[in-house]
């Protein structure tokens, strides 16, 4: 019996190392969706599944910027994100991002049945759900991606060993997601903003010139997506759940590599209708993503933001009510992490986008 246990432990370690090697070897593919595809392949080695949604995320909004969706019917996209926006849903990505582990399964929190999960009732009942394993990929307090892995076989829950194996791979997954997020961008398709009007059923009922090309670029980046990709559906459903909060702004990325600034606004005189304004990002729009990708601490991000505003070390110290010496230590650490040697190089990178 002990030999059998040792053999199983050895095989488990080999699978985890093989999965980690697969993740790390994919680092050269920094095209949109490349990291997500690598994560799907790696997780399949240690915790086999039937369907998956793996997405890069905007660290500021915890909404998808792109992704890969395998063996999932397109009809589940809207209810999937509608349940994610519901306050009474279980195991939401936003909840996982606040947890210590960042990994969880429905079977763990609902061992006697999934009926209390809105996602199960509205999304997964048609596939005889066995379990859903959810992951957020985060480091330094920032989330760079999220994933849902589904077993369509009733009673087939993810084991503790499988959950632990996935947890061991999240660090490597974060690294390749970071690489993809800061990969050089292409020129955005529109010269200026485009606007779309979406009805309560999620259909585009009006659009300005150029909007279709942008929508096609965004749909292409969400492999397996329908006319409106998850990167657009997710923010719409969040605004639908909280219309009183007003417009929501997030960042999304197209198959071309172009980054866009997406603003979703509810119409006052047409309940359930939304206006989507999409325009090319400026360097300042991407600054939060790039700062997070360098592994800066929350305080270091605050210091960089003030440096980019033109404040001196003494002025920043006064704002935070700490010593100038401490601020200079922060600045030194920031320069090392970002790979610059002066404030001028920092400004060039983040205000002019020279390395994006």
Descriptive overview:
There is one protein chain. By secondary structure, the chain is α+β, with helices and mostly antiparallel strands. 46% of the residues lie in helices and 20% in strands. It has a six-stranded mixed beta sheet, sandwiched between helices. α2 packs antiparallel against α7 (160-181). The protein is globular.
> Within the largest sheet, what's the order of strands?
3-4-5-1-2-8
Helical stretch tally: 14
Give the biggest beta sheet: 6 strands, mixed
Order of helices and strands: HHEEHHEHHEEHEEHEHEEEHHHHH
Overall radius of gyration: 21 Å
List the helices and strands and how they pair.
Elements: H1 2-25, H2 34-46, E1 51-58, E2 63-70, H3 77-85, H4 93-98, E3 103-105, H5 106-109, H6 118-124, E4 131-139, E5 142-151, H7 160-181, E6 194-198, E7 204-207, H8 211-221, E8 222-223, H9 230-241, E9 248-253, E10 259-266, E11 274-280, H10 283-293, H11 298-308, H12 313-320, H13 324-338, H14 343-351
Parallel strand pairs: 2-8
Antiparallel strand pairs: 1-2, 1-5, 3-4, 4-5, 6-7, 6-11, 9-10, 10-11
